[in-house]
Design goal:
Radius of gyration of chain A: 17 Å
Structural class of chain B: alpha/beta
Low-confidence stretches of chain B: none
Order of helices and strands of chain A: HHHHHHHH
Largest sheet of chain B: 4 strands, mixed
Distance between the termini of chain A: 36 Å
Shape of chain A: elongated
Strand order of the largest sheet of chain B: 1-4-3-2
Radius of gyration of chain B: 16 Å
Number of strands of chain A: 0
Mean pLDDT of chain A: 85
Distance between the termini of chain B: 33 Å
Helix content of chain B: 10-25%
Mean pLDDT of chain B: 94
Shape of chain B: globular
Oligomer: heterodimer
Number of helices of chain A: 8
Low-confidence stretches of chain A: 146-151
Largest interface: A-B, 26 and 34 residues
Order of helices and strands of chain B: EHEEEHEHEEE
Helix content of chain A: 55-70%
């Protein structure tokens, strides 16, 4: 900003971690890796995942994957895009592991999920942030956890 | 009976930083900035959206003793920085243009403009971690 006053403000480390969490919410479509997220949080990659988990109760990878799955359910409900397209649209690259993770979380395949769920917007008028916050599946162990955050 | 909403309160980590952000980046106007020495230099600081004279946002420092004990103060600060505070909702005539303008000024967005059945909405945060949204109603 073109201001003459430069402020040096102390921010808690959690605020920087929140920036990484926000980055996941904003850019889950992209191949986000831990290095990118850690940089935003001003932490080393090694520290970052542990601190993220300590602050938000789940690893950044879990958060990213559940965000992608939540967005996938929205696309399944609200669009006619194919399952393969939706997989890519939410930043995942393998339809096989997408379907596997999806099934583990929701108990059904993406196609069956689509058949069973009419668009939520047809039932209630709620902001996107509410949908995103409440529809995100609870974290659990994913087979992909052992890999990097890259989808 | 209650007549009108006049102020909403938002906790901030630093009032000077918040004032710069809300005025220079979000384009709000300063409404009140009063420091009261006999109240331990309590600072009543409020801003508002130009054109909406009757509602202001009070940017409130998180007080320590005698208002809150240090532990409580820390907890509020911690929740705020984790993004667990409440949110404020605004309207915009043009969500995309508003997004691009705010983004160009360095505002951190949590969500790009997204089409919803009721309109187009987008989300961002202030430096403290408060969550804000704006919507262009369809």
């Amino acid at each position: 900003m073109g201001s003459t006053l430069t402020l040096v403000v102390y921010l808690p480390s959690t605020r920087h971690l929140l920036r990484a969490k926000d980055l996941i919410d904003a850019r889950y479509r992209e191949p986000l890796d831990i290095q990118t997220l850690a940089r935003v949080a001003h932490l080393s990659s090694a520290h970052f995942s542990r601190e993220f988990r300590r602050t938000f109760g789940e690893t950044p990878h879990q958060y990213l994957l559940t965000r992608r799955l939540e967005r996938a359910t929205a696309l399944l409900r609200n669009t006619d895009h194919s399952v393969a397209d939706i997989c890519l649209e939410v930043g995942l690259t393998s339809v096989g592991s997408f379907t596997t993770s999806f099934r583990r979380v929701y108990g059904v395949t993406p196609t069956a999920y689509r058949r069973a769920h009419p668009p939520a917007a047809a039932r209630a008028r709620v902001p996107t942030c509410v949908l995103q916050a409440y529809a995100r599946p609870q974290s659990r162990s994913f087979r992909e956890d052992s890999r990097t955050a890259r989808g | 009976m209650l007549k009108q909403l006049t102020h909403v309160q938002v906790w901030v980590h630093d009032q000077d930083e918040a004032l710069k952000f809300y005025t220079e980046k979000l384009g709000m106007e300063l409404r009140e900035d009063v420091t009261v020495p006999e109240l331990g230099n309590f600072r009543w600081l409020s801003v508002g959206v130009p054109g909406q004279e009757d509602v202001a946002i009070t940017l409130m420092d998180i007080p320590g003793p005698p208002v809150f004990d240090e532990e409580t103060r820390q907890k509020i600060q911690d929740l705020l920085s984790r993004g667990a505070s409440g949110g404020l909702f605004f309207s915009a005539d043009n969500a995309q243009a508003t997004y691009e303008e705010l983004k160009s000024r360095g505002v951190d967005f949590t969500q790009e403009p997204t089409e919803q059945p009721y309109g187009i909405d987008a989300g961002f945060r202030d430096p403290s971690g408060n969550h804000f949204r704006f919507m262009q109603q369809s």
